[in-house]
Design a protein that fits this description.
Alpha-Beta Plaits, Rossmann fold, 2 domains, 8-stranded mixed sheet, 4-stranded antiparallel sheet, globular, Ribosomal_L11_MeTrfase_PrmA
Length: 294
């Protein structure tokens, strides 16, 4: 069953109270993790935690409308409007760091391989992306990432510009560059994702062609031949006015992070501006693609 989690950083004294608040909002479980003892959630080098030493993590069914959960939490006296949080899909066993042992080279489409940076590549003549996701989402093990990688492999990216909206580990932007794109732009709300993307771009020798931005830093009037956004259904609907204008006329759009049951509502948010393809499904998740009309 697919899941989504929300993470809130706080102090040990407030953790239980916030855990109760997450349960009230519908979390099926709540986990407390000491940020000093858990490598998965260590801050970036030089980064200072704004709050405290405990991460409160609420696990929700992936059908949950997380925008409503966040809206409800904003009324909590320990949080307030605009409180810091992180929402992400759950990759298999990622929370136990078992992916480091189970993460093997994987093929997507006809040409593309995603290879852990600590393993040998199976085919030196293939298009190989060497990846260490670090603290960010995106290894290729999650169906949504796999759907996006296979789609990119099937496009003619030679000389094109690609925007990866919600870049995570940088896996999609870097794959696009290795597949022939001239330039890529990665955008993410999480500084850890920007760091992971930068590190992986350097590892793959494409950092000179990848520009990375937090949302408030991105240039105005961005556009690209190909735009891919592997986030979640709620943000894809909410941010549709921003995402719809990123592809050039005739440009490609790929959306994922969407449950099959959510596909229709996401399609409706983009149908006016795009000629949409049939929805592609994989293990309860799906991908929506299309061309922007003139």
């Amino acid at each position: 069953m697919p899941w989504i989690q929300i993470k809130i950083n706080t102090t040990g004294a407030h953790a239980e109270e916030l855990g109760d608040a997450l349960i009230e909002q519908g979390a099926v479980s709540v986990t407390f993790q000491d940020t000093h003892d858990t490598p998965v959630f260590e801050p970036l080098p030089g980064e200072t935690r704004l709050w405290g030493d405990t991460d409160v993590i609420g696990l929700f069914d992936a059908e949950t409308e997380m925008r409503e959960v966040v809206a409800g939490l904003q009324y909590h006296p320990l949080l307030g409007e605009g409180f810091r949080h992180k929402i992400e899909q759950i990759e298999d066993k990622d929370w136990e760091r078992e992916w480091m042992e189970n993460f093997h080279p994987m093929r997507f489409g006809k040409r593309l391989w995603i290879c852990p940076s600590w393993r040998d590549v199976p085919d030196p003549n293939a298009v190989n992306v060497m990846l260490d996701p670090g603290l960010a989402f995106g290894t290729g093990t999650h169906p949504t990432t796999a759907l996006c990688l296979a789609w990119l492999d099937g496009l003619d990216l030679e000389g094109k510009t690609v925007i990866d909206f919600g870049c995570g580990s940088g896996i999609l932007a870097i794959a696009a560059l290795k597949l022939g794109a001239a330039q890529a732009i990665g955008i993410d709300i999480d500084p850890q994702a920007i760091q992971a993307s930068r590190d992986n771009a350097q590892r793959n020798g494409v950092d000179d062609r990848l520009s990375l931005y937090l949302p408030h830093q991105q240039p105005a009037n961005l556009s690209a031949d190909v735009v891919v956004a592997n986030i979640l259904a709620g943000p894809l609907r909410e941010l549709a006015p921003l995402i719809r204008v990123l592809p050039k006329n005739g440009g490609h759009l790929g959306l994922s992070g969407i449950l099959a049951s959510q596909a229709e509502s996401v399609c409706e948010a983009y149908a006016e501006a795009f000629i949409l393809d049939p929805v592609e499904e994989k293990e309860e998740w799906c991908r929506i693609t299309g061309l922007r009309g003139a």
